[in-house]
Amino acid sequence: MKYEAIIDGKPARLELSGARASYLRETGESLDLEYSIAATGVGQWSVLANGRSFAAQLLSSGEVSVNGRVIRVEIFDPRSMRGRRNATGSEGRQTIVAPMPGRVIRVLIEAGQEVEEGQGLIVVEAMKMQNEMKSPKAGRVVEVKTAAGATVAAGDILAVIE
Amino acid sequence: MKYEAIIDGKPARLELSGARASYLRETGESLDLEYSIAATGVGQWSVLANGRSFAAQLLSSGEVSVNGRVIRVEIFDPRSMRGRRNATGSEGRQTIVAPMPGRVIRVLIEAGQEVEEGQGLIVVEAMKMQNEMKSPKAGRVVEVKTAAGATVAAGDILAVIE
Amino acid sequence: MFRKVLVANRGEIAVRVIRALRETGIASVAVYSDVDRASLAVQLADEAAHLGPAAASESYLRIDKIIAAAHSHRADAIHPGYGFLSENAEFAEACAAAGIVFIGPPAAAIRQMGSKTAARQLAIAAGAPVVPGTVSAVTNLDDAKRTAEQLGYPVLLKASAGGGGKGMRRVDRAEDLEAAIRDASSEALRAFHNGDVYIEKLVVEPRHIEIQVLGDQHGNLIHLGERECSIQRRHQKVIEECPSPVMSTYPELRERMGEAALRIARAANYSNAGTMEFLVDRERNFYFLEMNTRLQVEHPVTELVTGLDLVQWQLKIAAGEKLTIRQEDVQWSGSAIECRIYAEDPDHQYLPSPGRITELTEPAGPGVRLDSGVYEGWNVPLDYDPLLAKLAAWGPSREAAMARLQRALSEYVIGGIRTNRAFFREILDDEVFRAGTLSTAFLDEFPGRRQSAKPDLEAEAIAALIGALAQKKPTAARRGNAAEWLKSGRESLFR
Amino acid sequence: MFRKVLVANRGEIAVRVIRALRETGIASVAVYSDVDRASLAVQLADEAAHLGPAAASESYLRIDKIIAAAHSHRADAIHPGYGFLSENAEFAEACAAAGIVFIGPPAAAIRQMGSKTAARQLAIAAGAPVVPGTVSAVTNLDDAKRTAEQLGYPVLLKASAGGGGKGMRRVDRAEDLEAAIRDASSEALRAFHNGDVYIEKLVVEPRHIEIQVLGDQHGNLIHLGERECSIQRRHQKVIEECPSPVMSTYPELRERMGEAALRIARAANYSNAGTMEFLVDRERNFYFLEMNTRLQVEHPVTELVTGLDLVQWQLKIAAGEKLTIRQEDVQWSGSAIECRIYAEDPDHQYLPSPGRITELTEPAGPGVRLDSGVYEGWNVPLDYDPLLAKLAAWGPSREAAMARLQRALSEYVIGGIRTNRAFFREILDDEVFRAGTLSTAFLDEFPGRRQSAKPDLEAEAIAALIGALAQKKPTAARRGNAAEWLKSGRESLFR
What we know:
The complex is a heterotetramer, with 2 copies of chain A (162 residues) and 2 copies of chain C (495 residues). Chain A is an all-beta fold and 162 residues long.
């Protein structure tokens, strides 16, 4: 089974066959592994590879922690390459997303309002820390999707700037 | 909701209504509880009852541990009283069951053989400890349901004596 | 001694106090807000009382509710922990008025030391060195400017009623002073309901070293030595140790600072546990900063090197017992270092990371002490401080303590949320940290020394492998039902 | 110092040694049988090597496989732990022949002390007191009968090559001697491939006290004091402590026993860590029993009171370093007690209880040390010893240590299998234990003092409540799917 992958932002390939894996960076470096894997918890595995012992953890962010080192992993099954995302351009519409789970304590803008680049838009608080989200560009507030007092999850869209 | 129960071998009743429970022993002692319950793990709860805090655990044996104290619990929904078992008589056929998970290391009998009361039948070993199962009565071996080398679970029937 | 004590706190410190109560044979009462119903503290306590909604202002800060809970549970004393109401003189007085012993210093001492300006005045009167600066709150800009000129920039604005870095501003130039005073004052007003700020000379790259004191109600007062707390982010300590590396080289400094701390404590008629915070400059001059009139977060390092249990002593002292340890009985053995494990992302501006702990493996073994307030399955609320646990290690030397702490950190797995665990591993490997040449600027400078992790082919390959296997069976986790899980455990489900 | 060490063991002791290796900066290689692939030791080690099937005879006892694993992983030394090959002189020699350092005493010392009769002879020659009895194996019944008459019944039969109570029989009457010799010998033959047994005078209700020694390869030898190990079931220790309560009253006894232990160790040209076991009678006469030429299970209590890391010292000594601690440097501070947490059912003849640990909450906090080899989800194999973990507590006094141990036990939750956790809580509450008047008869007599737990209305009501709620939603656990579980955690599933 062959996979294309993007590992910490860089393209690579992985080939699995039985208890063997071949890993190949686009830049040429490669590594063959003879491995065994055993689950030790929820989303947590003991991996033995070439005799060395690793603790691997699948993080909710989709990252993988290997012996405590966090690595961004995107895997594409070659049979479903449509899954492969390209880095999206960041012009035009911009969404303001909550950087952490928390509670909205102040909304400093309203829909239709013009804003400057760097202007404070919304303040989210969690664990006694306030985080002010600033406008990534000068523009107009298209939509405000939250209100003071609302509880938000990390990644929730709070506002849209155009 | 009313339940009949046998608690550590003695009959009792339990009545639940909202966050209140009434417990009544057959012998007359009773206790009213105002309780709240929160899961803290698999088969594990934090129970607050009348302001006191208890850690309760449902054991695989069907027993319940309350602050580390193990209590045998049988509960009968009054709508399905057929579930209620009576203590079974122990005359006639006797089954020899494994007292612990382990490995059968010796089978000292064969089917058809006559045995004395107290005669060694089967030896099970686990965790470096050997346990010799003895015949509960004089009689005849009807059946041997295991063999040396077999892995057994606690409660598995190993032989039948008649 | 008390029969039953209510613990007016949450998280790891509530657990710590409940443990001390159990070891002393005293029944414990935990309190909880809506989101803390299933907390570890509630589980471990003998009794528990509900306070109210998650917001601290509706639960852990409600004096009336806490006193009522103590009454209904027939507690004869209250331990406030740290934070929340622990340094609130009104709370101490309300306890006394309700016939409940407040486990801490006298209300008068809390009040006096609670005002940083009053504490400075008292320290000066007691002959202890303080950071040069104003002793009273800034009232007009012109005076403030003159003071700042006299002290020489940079200066530091601090909230009179403050703590934890709130209402604090560094000012480098005269033209920034007005805005800084306004900002600091409004932040102080929000945080402490008191907008007073004062001006101090900024000690450049100081060590932050504190002295633990312990006194009974019979006039006996001793110090238990120092804790080095220079490693701070946003004025929040993250690593503490005892002895301070500077005192290993200059042992007489402990004696001098201990004496100064005792002079201040005596002047304040202090009893119970308390901590004097000092700045120490490069020439080993030390300056009294403020006093914390409560148990410190970092008290375990002192316990590890002295063998004393500070919380048990707090209980005894509050019950009127005499301190049976004399100053000359206090021995410091070996070295202890503590890391504060926070639910935060050190790679993204320390952003908070509340949420459910889906996986928890805690370190243990020789020389390791863990004071934790969480468990696997616990949902870390977003309403409070991000402190999850304190991991401390003891060793016969600083090197041995560092090695054990590294080892313990390598075993610590917290899944589901981000923590600063891995960040500590880097700090403990840092040459400057290992050399012990610490200052409060450490964490500002450290990122510049951080090795940008070199791409590691082996780790990448394993990460890719895990990613591929997880994708290969994308629904394995979904399909497995819990009954099967119960039967055959986690391995079958996630293999 | 070594670069890489293979740990030829499993369970908690493998974890303990791996921790010491990590703290010393040495890479570790774990070994595992089929059923130990996902063990905690394998997870924590830097490398791991597969040995073979579950049966110890095919894995942990296979000298050839272990040496081969050490070679292929380029380990330069092997730590044997305790049990398995740790006291096997052939293994030590095989290591040497393979160019690998055996972390333990010289093979000659293992061999000499491995024969109980040879060890007795050596102790007598060194002028240490031994239990009266034969020094050589029983060869004919008439001699044995004469010996037993001379010693006076009761006598004790012991396996020359034995340990752990195997091949041991108490004989009260002459007419039982023949059968007892036959039984003991055949048991010894099965267990040790050596049927030799010898006869000793049975010391009635003795304390079992052992002395830890530590020696380097340069002739330096010290003792680290005693461990009281009188609380045993079937000659297996379950609780150990330091200091022994008897030595708190008679401190000179430690010195006398320490001197005797050192005399024996010197006579055996001993180096590395070892333990001399003694019986102590009511008049505080002590008798050498045997030597364990390896690390003891219960070494943590010595580490807790002396502050020394025995495993780290084992590594240094094996690497040829000199012992830098002199006898007068050894300090005993406070008191430490350890419980051996076994997978067994103390209410049913200590029957083993292997299986999956479905829930695990481990105690921590001040003064608590846990050395565990298990984790939540781990399937405790039925193939080995039932020891899961060792829970130890330190306190400034024996009372404080007992209180902390009780507190820690009260927090310890192990779900899915039976353990003796609750049994320790009863023992620690027992008046005889608390008074410290211990003997090896303790656990035989204890059941007679056990309070048959009085029916507790409150606990019963809560047990019934849990039973009813579990029945009310009998399929809740089954219906919830794992995806939901992952999402909303355990609470939603089992509420």
